[in-house]
Amino acid sequence: MTYRKKLLTGLCALLSGVGGAALATDSAPGDRPRHELPPSKDGNLVLGLCDGETSLEVKGVKEGEPLSRAQALEVTSKLMQEWRRKNPDARWDVVAQAPTPPPSPRKPSAGKSNQAEGPTASSGAAGMAEKKDANVQTGHTYGAFSERDEALWAASTQAFVEEGNRVFHDADALGSKVAVSCDMCHPDAANTHPETYPKYQVQFGRVALLRDMINWCIENPVRGKPLADDDPKMKAMEAYIYSKRKGVPLEFGKH
What is the pLDDT of residues 122-138, one digit of tens each? Predict the structure, then answer.
């Protein structure tokens, strides 16, 4: 056996032992690893966190029975308290948004006077669209573009982010059978760290993307059905989560 083969064999053996998970390649949706929850001897509902380990039996609620949002909030709060108790030294961001750097001074376009700034993302698209002679877009992706183009693009991006915000906080939109939504454990997308993906995740036994972890949470704590990569809800949630870490340097692979 060559040195290269020995090195690869040893690496695979090492990774297969991490967290008891086997090294795997991308799997079909039906083969995706699941959070195996301990059964309740009384047939009560058992919920778990996305760490794949922490779980809680909901007394008086049978498996298959729905929870109210208030009940789901109470259960997820207890789960998070238990996780913190077992992991007192673990880092958990309570604030999702990174400090926003000050905007760079806008340079006037060549041949134009230094005019006042254009409309903001929230007011620009609506205000500019009221102009009777306004086109949908006057610029090009890789060419010159106007302040109005920037306002339209910013408004469209913000609307996309807001849709992700809505889905992230809406158990019904996530298809939850237990009234759990993503924000209950990750308020305002806290402690999601999209800037660290792709990275090795023990839950999967392989390198995962942010969308893989979103689906893990949808399938397990949320008890919904996974979303396709091109599902508008998945795209919007990715946009929302990334937006909450604006200004944070990209550092893929970090744990």
Answer: 444 444 444 444 555 56
* Closest alpha carbon to 200 in 56, 28, 62, 23: 23
Q: Name the residue with tokens 């599902």.
A: 231
Cβ atoms 238, 163 nearer than 8 A: no
Within the chain, how many helices (H) and strands (E) appear? 6, 4
Under 8 Å CB-to-CB from 167, ≥6 apart: which residues?
A: 173, 174, 233, 236, 237, 240
Residue 71 · residue 61 · CB < 8 Å: yes
User: In Å, how far are 31, 51, 134, 213, 254 from 13, measured between CA atoms?
Assistant: 21, 23, 62, 24, 21
**Residue 158 CB neighbour total at 10 angstroms:** 16
How remote is the C-alpha of 117 from its chain's centroid? 33
CA distances for 140 relative to 32, 102, 112, 153, angstroms: 41, 26, 19, 12
Asked whether 191 and 92 are in contact (CB, 8 A), the reply is yes
The CA-based dihedral angle spanning residues 195, 85, 184, 37, taken in that order and rounded to the nearest 10 degrees: 100
Region of 156 on the Ramachandran plot (φ > 0 left; ψ -120 to 50 alpha; else beta): alpha
Q: Which helix (H) or strand (E) holds 153?
A: helix 147-168
The first and second tokens of residue 171, run together, are: 């158990």
Which residue, chain included where needed, has tokens 């036994």?
Answer: 205
Could you report the per-residue pLDDT of 44-77, keeping only the tens digit for each? 888 888 777 888 888 888 888 888 888 888 888 8
Of 189, 181, 253, 166, the closest CA to residue 217 belongs to 181
Q: Flag whether the pTM goes above 0.70.
A: no
